[in-house]
Amino acid sequence: MAHGAADPVLDVRGLTVEFSTEGGVLRAVDDVSFEIGRGEIVGLVGESGAGKSLTSEAILRLIRCPPGRVRGEVRFRGQNLLTLGERSLADIRGKDIAMIFQNPGASLNPVFRVGEQMLEAMAVHVPERRAALRRRVLEILGRVGIPSPGTRARDYPHQFSGGMAQRVMIGMGISCMPSLLIADEPTTALDVTIQAQVLALIRRLARELGVAVLLVSHDLGIISQMCHRVLVMYAGRVVEQASVEAIFRAPAHPYTQGLIACLPRLEGTGKLGAIGGAMPGLAALPPGCRFHPRCPVSEPRCRVEAPPLGPLRPEHQVACHVARPS
Amino acid sequence: MTPTTPLLEVRDLVKHFPVRRHPLAALRRAAPARVVHAVDGVTFEVAAGETLGLVGESGCGKTTTGRLVLRAIEPTRGHIVFEGEDITSLPAGRLLPFRRKAQIVFQDPYSSLNPRMTVGAMVAEPIRVHRIAAGAEVEARVRSLLDMVGLSAEYARRYPHELSGGQRQRVGIARALAAGPRLVVADEAVSALDVSVRAQILNLFVELRERLGLAYLFVSHDLGVIRFVSHRVAVMYLGRLAEVAPASALFKQPLHPYTQALLAAIPAVGDGSTSIFDNPARLLEGELPNPIDLPRGCRFASRCPHRMSQCEEVEPALREAAPGHAVACHLYTEGGTP
Description:
Chain A is built from 11 helices and 12 strands. Chain A is an alpha/beta fold. Chain B has one domain: Rossmann fold (3-Layer(aba) Sandwich), CATH 3.40.50.
């Protein structure tokens, strides 16, 4: 699938997130770069502590600074979000960039009717009369698959199931026709059949409305079924970046290979491939390649020299001395 | 191991939870007592050394079933037979021998361990309670249990906060094994773990089963996990079993429309060339009905793509459609065409 990489919707360059703590400065996201074109879904995958959620929060400037410190560039349609004034940023967030998070229930205000909340959120960005907005709320509820929108709009959030609440969040997100959707573990709290409905909806938004999507997930199955391109993160760094086909057909980084081998398959049993140990904490990162203590193919130089992310093939980058000997 | 008597037999197990009524509801005359039908007539067996996977979505009753089996909560009706003995109505005082043989591993290794106790003390507790050993022998047993779950002896002196999620779950398993059980109920025991750690713990479960001849009732919402550990699988929907079959048969040829939909909705790792999410026709619509006001006929009828008129009238019973493969669906009774 070809996507307009020439003119990306989002262009992230050298994004770095640090936190000052009593124990010193911790770098939670280290020099992350990628872009997302129109209608493209880019996946950010990794285990907890990899820095994938922080990356998405940094893009939206949701990280409190201090103690945080965010560097790099986040170009959204040409503007650098990291240096933009608060007012202009507020205009973009929620209108041109929509965001949905893991826990949809927590994102809705329990004391207001769902329809009202959607209307208020829209009224901030859309200069239309309330009657017109009300019609749009119903139209959007219908589009995200809420049955009988007229009745459901008058319900309170507790009357919605998790799947419906998440669809309401997506509905609010797309109500202003955003060009970028940032979805951070959008279906982790949902059951598998409901998850499928929500993910099919996101896939359709990208395909039919050309929305660019950044999908953060720990689930490699979801990533393989949803994304066009994938970034694999480990301990704050991108270790591999490629098209979804390349990542799943020919993973180059030992961590990516290990993660894929770890997954129980539906077609059979046999012992699972396992990566020994656990991801290191930020305060105790090993020198050299951060994956080397768990790596089955590490070499002496991996212990001292951090491998840079570089091209293995066109459009396939990997940070590994073994996969890409320099 | 006696092949004739299963280790665990569950017959027509029912658990209804009363819905707490509003204090003023009593003023209204004849307000009906309402119940949540959490588990509503469930029958299955687990043989010694066998793993039965119990899978379903949230609210289907799989966790409640696991707890009922252990008599952690009391069933409303039905029977639990363990090693040929009906333990359903044994008084609490006489349950100790059963408790020794049937243990549980919980989902969340962060809240299921006592933060004030060392790992050693926690693993020693069941050994003392069941008087399996005393004195210095306790310590030796703790060491061998820790070794069995892949932790070195020095972990005995550590506290839970010093351990990673995977290490905590290893402690949870050591604790469950301390009394020498024959059945372990694993309740979403790997769901809170990261992918790479989850694989380690799943391998450990299988290794321990082979080594100790354990039987597992493995409760999980994750079909990949269930496929990996189970010999047989029971699919639960709204308090009832929809299908019970050997794992290979269930995943190769699921019979119940719900099982089929569940399998179709799993985002299995593909090669990225196609997406199951681009073909919404295969995806199930709607959501689980309310477990308080259950539909009259088949519980799945409202979402079923093959719904027939009788499905809304008569609840299908769980029947064998092929040897060892049972399904509760009218498509497979006389007259129905699968």
